[in-house]
Amino acid sequence: MSNLSLPQELMEALQCLRPVFHACSWESFLYLITGLLLGQAQPGIVRASLCAPQGYNWRRMHDLLRRNAWSGIGLMVALTGMVLATLYPDGFPTHLFWVVDPTYLEKMHAQAIEGVMTHRRPHPKAGQGRNLKGHGVVLIAHLYRQSTHRMKTFLLGGLLYLKQATFVELSGQLVNALPVPEGVHNVLVTDRGLTSLKLAKAILKQGAYCLGRVKANACFYLPATEADYKGRGRRPTYGDKFRADAAPKQAMQQVEMLVPIDGKLKEGIISRGAFLRKGFPHPIDLICVEVAGLSPWLLMLTDPTLDTEEAVYAYYGRSQVEVAIAESKALGLDQYRGRRQAGIQRWPMIIGVVHSLLQLIAVGALKLTLPAQNWSWYRKETTVGSIQRRLFQLIQRVHFLDLFRRKRKDGKMDKAA
After folding, report:
1. Which of 1, 114, 259, 297 is 20 to 30 A off residue 369, Cα-Cα?
2. Given 3-state DSSP classes, what are the helix, strand and coil percentages for the chain, each rounded to the nearest 5?
3. Which sign does the torsion angle of CA 241, 286, 251, 279 carry?
4. Is 351 helix (H, G, I), strand (E, B) or coil?
5. Among positive and negative, which fits the CA dihedral 219, 142, 69, 47?
6. How far apart are CA 248 and CA 375, in angstroms?
7. How far apart are CA 62 and CA 66, in angstroms?
8. For residues 100 and 121, what is the distance between their CA atoms, to the nearest angstrom?
């Protein structure tokens, strides 16, 4: 075993991932996860060999990602099962929420690295160009409702964009690969860039539903009435056509409720109605969220059983995936320096394991006693970064305590001899 061993609670959680690996790769996987959890392997995966015994060959770290036979999708499936079993030990709620979002891993000085392309920079800052050079990745996460108005995301994995499939198609592949539980309504929450009928139809095969923001010019239809029938031929299915921002209010139910905006609750008017869209076999609910002084949210929902208030809070909680992406990059998502495509594709799955373990400890689902951080300038100790620093303090304290006891015992033995 490694010189820096993980706590027993983490080792028991990691045992759920054991069937994905064979014996040789499982040993290297444990060392790599230990290095990433402690922050030692963020600059490079070779530094994870510092957590291994002295005779361990550091080249096996690269072989784990490039050559060893294990499935990245299989790891994501096993991780999803472990996260769901830990979060919901007493049974699943009526609705489970998932979220997908693309991100870019900039590697401006990359040479001879597979998968590197030029992408449009989504949010350029001062001094940055319009384009970036790097990898495009579609990430999927589980959206967990910690309380009524508080959501947390658990990063599960991602797929590399290689121009062989669009971001929408990759999102559908990720959702269809998830081991979603039966008897539960699984809702995928997306933003405007990914919300489309193509994605809604792709995940419908898995029995999942879509909740996402649509553009203002998205076309909806009223159901056809008797006046639309001309007296001959097949009766029409679609009636009057309208844009999403010009939906007929008389065909929608309106309620007043508090809407979460930038961490605050503001009074708003919610309108909801069931309409049709060409190419989708079922009616689609259009939800219009209007708050004074802000442009309205236009949400498309394919699950008629989801409550309006729950749908609004679920879409607002979608922004937590941006926090999870920033946390995963701090854990080393964009620091992998391998050149081969196999290792690049597997790396988001490895980071998903690390982020989910730290997030499970942060929300209290995985019980682990950690030392206090004791920062006077930052009191919050339940973020992913704080949990990582506290875990490092715990393992460092246990490691040096064992080392001190071992040296003291050796000294007594030498003295007795």
Report:
1. 1
2. 40, 25, 35
3. positive
4. helix
5. positive
6. 54
7. 6
8. 18
